[in-house]
Design goal:
About 40% of the residues lie in helices and about 20% in strands. It is of the alpha+beta class. The chain folds into three domains: about 290 residues, no CATH class; about 110 residues, no CATH class; about 60 residues, Arc Repressor Mutant, subunit A. The strands form four sheets. It has an eight-stranded mixed sheet with strand order 5-6-9-1-10-11-12-13. β12 and β13 form a beta hairpin. α7 packs across α9 and α12 crosses α14. The longest helix has 20 residues. It is elongated, with a radius of gyration of 29 Å.
Length: about 475
């Protein structure tokens, strides 16, 4: 029997607010010594009162609007009760039946087709502390430490509908979520620092069946790679269990990165296990329609809209447009380069998606760290368009620009890389190439067109890439025709 994969995701994103969700402690705890960014409120001391962070609410509403959610006129916070060492109060202030938003969606592209994936809700809660597990090796005693600097940091949760039926859809979804959050400026999406984390719910059902199977939740996934690999393993495990006549238990699993397996943590809790009830220390939130529209007006141009504009204004292919808008900083870089030198948009896109991305990958740099500014890239493309340097030489020039931050004209002048466009000078090189390659000449005369490309390559090699390729091709044809 064949099965259909059913996946729903919960994305947890820390918000870029200055202070924590319910107190005045700094939300930027990176690099701070353990348990120094804390106060009685985020340590859950008896008698303290939380105060709602208005900016966190605004960021969550903006995100919900970006994902086409409905904003209800009334919302409240709830206590979610469970006991875990990093949950200092024994409960988490979260949201349950009246969240900040509901009923949204986003579109992804899979195999060239657009698919709408539902978003159940976008709500707001507080983050927990962080456990550090130490020791446990040969002869070492294992123990755990708790750092509460993260406790109380605003945490936005985006919950999807169980609408994903392939790993490719999952990949597109998580990438799109992160891209939109960065466009909005509400979260860094930096998974290495724990600013974005995932929980996946996965089940299998017979093809054609509409009823959902028992789901397994995979907790605390800290990277796209972990999401995809854990789902891949869990899908294979469930398929094997079902094929052998077994039963899938509804449970919570962890992902063992070292062994690449899911491991049972506990039986899956239901809503009643958390004993939700309204948070008595916080007032409900009431949203006037005019305020919601003011939040909508703050939305920037989002990735899909920017992609469509790139298609219309710059004549890019859909592939190039999607590649550029996947990172707001890259899309900004592209537009600045085009406008800086009135460069051909397609050429700019090709250089960004080709040489720039290649060098960034080799050096581990982000676009904001690159020494080649958008005007500098446009300036180099201007040299190519003017025939000052060839495309081959331009790659060497660009590599030096990337490494040193120098401008293209200075590198070209310093190294004498100006393209040879003087017909008389180049004709001599062409004659030498023809004389040195009699077999290629004979092949060309016999009608083999590839022989001409070979001869052009030899001219480029002889001139160290500085020959004007079009002129070299023309001169070769002339001299070959003359016999």
């Amino acid at each position: 029997m064949d099965y259909e994969i059913v996946v729903g995701l919960e994305v947890h994103a820390q918000l870029l607010t200055q202070s924590k969700m319910f107190c005045g402690c700094s939300a930027d705890y990176a690099g701070a010594p353990p348990n120094t960014q804390v106060c009685p409120v985020c340590l859950g001391m008896p008698g303290v009162l939380p105060v709602i962070n208005a900016k966190a609410v605004e960021y969550t509403i903006m995100t919900a609007l970006a994902f086409n959610c409905q904003i209800p006129p009334f919302s409240k916070f709830d206590r979610k009760n469970y006991h875990y060492p990093d949950l200092v109060k024994g409960y988490q202030i979260s949201q349950y039946d009246l969240p900040l938003s509901h009923g949204g969606w986003l579109e992804v592209e899979v195999d060239g087709q657009s698919k709408r994936l539902g978003i159940t809700r976008v709500h707001l809660e507080e983050d927990t502390g962080k456990l550090l597990h130490v020791g446990g090796g040969a002869g070492d005693e294992a123990y755990s430490l708790i750092d509460f600097n993260r406790s109380g940091v605003p945490l936005m949760e985006i919950v999807s509908e169980p609408d994903m039926h392939s790993l490719d859809e999952v990949r597109q979804y998580v990438n799109k979520i992160r891209t939109v959050l960065r466009y909005l400026g509400v979260s860094s999406g930096d998974m290495e620092k724990g600013a974005m984390r995932f929980e996946a719910n996965v089940s299998l059902r017979p093809l054609g069946e509409t009823k959902l199977g028992n789901r397994v939740e995979i907790k605390n996934l800290n990277s796209f790679r972990a999401v995809l690999r854990s789902l891949e393993f869990e899908i294979a495990r469930q398929r094997q269990v079902l094929a052998s006549g077994g039963h899938i238990d509804q449970e919570t699993m962890g992902w063992d990165e070292a062994r690449n397996v899911t491991v049972t943590q506990r039986s899956k809790e239901e809503e009643q296990d958390y004993r939700y009830f309204p948070e008595p220390d916080l007032p409900p939130l009431v949203f006037a329609p005019a305020w919601v529209e003011a939040m909508r007006a703050k939305l920037p141009e989002l990735p899909d809209a920017r992609r469509d504009r790139f298609l219309a204004d710059y004549g890019l292919s859909r592939y190039d447009a999607n590649l550029l808008v996947a990172d707001k900083a890259v899309a900004d870089y592209f537009e600045q380069a085009v406008k800086a030198g009135r460069a051909d948009p397609k050429a700019v896109a090709n250089w960004i998606g080709g040489e720039l991305f290649r060098l960034m990958k080799e050096t581990g740099q982000e676009i904001g760290q690159v020494q080649v500014t958008p005007p500098a890239l446009a300036e180099m493309l201007g040299l190519i368009a003017a025939g000052t340097i060839s495309g081959k030489v331009a790659k060497d020039v660009f590599a030096e620009m990337f490494a040193t931050g120098k401008r293209a004209p200075a590198i070209v002048a310093e190294k004498g890389l100006t393209q040879i466009s003087d017909a008389a000078a180049l004709a001599q090189v062409v004659a030498q190439v023809i004389a040195a390659n009699p077999q290629a000449v004979a092949d060309f005369q016999a009608g083999k067109e590839t022989a001409l490309r070979f001869l052009v390559g030899q001219v480029m090699k002889a001139t160290k890439g500085q020959a004007n390729p079009a002129l070299a091709n023309e001169l070769l044809l002339q001299q070959l025709a003359a016999g």
